[in-house]
Amino acid sequence: MRFPVASDKATISENVQKFLGKCDWKSAIAEMERLFAIDPDPMVRVRIGNARQKLGQKSEAAKEYIHAADLYADGGFVIKALAQYKLALRLDPRNKDAQDKIEMLHSNKSITELKLEPIEDGAQVSTRSVIPLFSDFTQEEFNEFTKRMIIHTLTPGKTIIKEGDRGRSVFILTRGSVKVFSTIRGKKVELAALQASDFFGEIAFLTGKPRTATIETIEESDVLEVSEEDLIQMISKSPRIREVLHNYHEQRAKNTLDIVKSAL
Q1: pTM for the full predicted model
Q2: I want to staple 4 with a disulfide (CB 3.0 to 4.6 A). Which of 8, 41, 96, 119 is the partner?
Q3: What is the Cα–Cα distance from 229 to 170, expressed in whole angstroms?
């Protein structure tokens, strides 16, 4: 019996790119199904979902995103799973399966055991992971927080937050990477490069002051946003959410302060 080898995967991947380049979505899907049979990477299901969207098959695309999310969740990639469930809900807002599975993420081991998401592509371990924040939420608070999230896909070089602005939304990076920089004594200082599962933007909300740094995408990225209005509504129902946000911010404030001091 002949087993698939690396060359098979490379050939199929080339075929996928060829068909995508021609906007031949059906042929691309067929090749991606072959690729998934060799290497069950959840990102392949995501790409199939994207292709089905191009064909106008919203319901089928939503199923693909849920399939990918299930695989991510099983692997401990909670934030990636959350993003894919949200993509499914963007296409099909009444999809109860996706919403129920988001709620189940609160009991995922990555959250209950405060594990950071698995490292991919040599990325450094995150120091700004949203997992500690989620672990401090009750199930009800987690459900409310995640229900209000909106997912955005952003091109490289897109400014998410601008230093000095008065925006109050908070964000979770779910795919790609962004850089954080600030102007200190007239000098542009890079403070951090954020990766998937990183949470940011809470300082302006907690203090009511303008943004303290600029955050810009390095590559195409997906981010989840919770608006100031939604945060205020949640806190009016559950004031403890502000305390959880504050405690989470305090836990990591020292790391940022050390970086700033070293730049002065």
Answers
A1: 0.88
A2: 8
A3: 11
Q: Which of 140, 211, 117 is nearest to 170 (CA)?
A: 211
Distance of CA 242 to the CA centre of its chain: 22
Of 67, 83, 115, which residue constitutes the final position of a domain? Answer: 115
Number of separate domains in the chain = 2
Q: Which residues of 177-188 are buried (b: 16+ CB within 10 A; e: fewer)?
A: bbebbbeeeeee
Q: For residue 262, which of 197, 190, 211 has the smallest C-alpha distance?
A: 190
Q: How is residue 192 written in tokens?
A: 């951090």
Q: Look at residue 226 and tell me if it is in a domain.
A: yes
Query: Is position 120 within any domain?
Result: no
Instruction: Judge if 56 and 184 occupy the same domain.
Output: no
* Inter-CA distances, 154 with 56, 128, 160, 222, 230, Å: 22, 20, 9, 6, 22
Here the CATH number for the domain that contains residue 205 is 2.60.120.10
**pLDDT, tens digit (0-9, with 9 covering 90-100), for 144-188:** 999 999 999 999 999 999 999 988 999 999 999 999 999 888 888
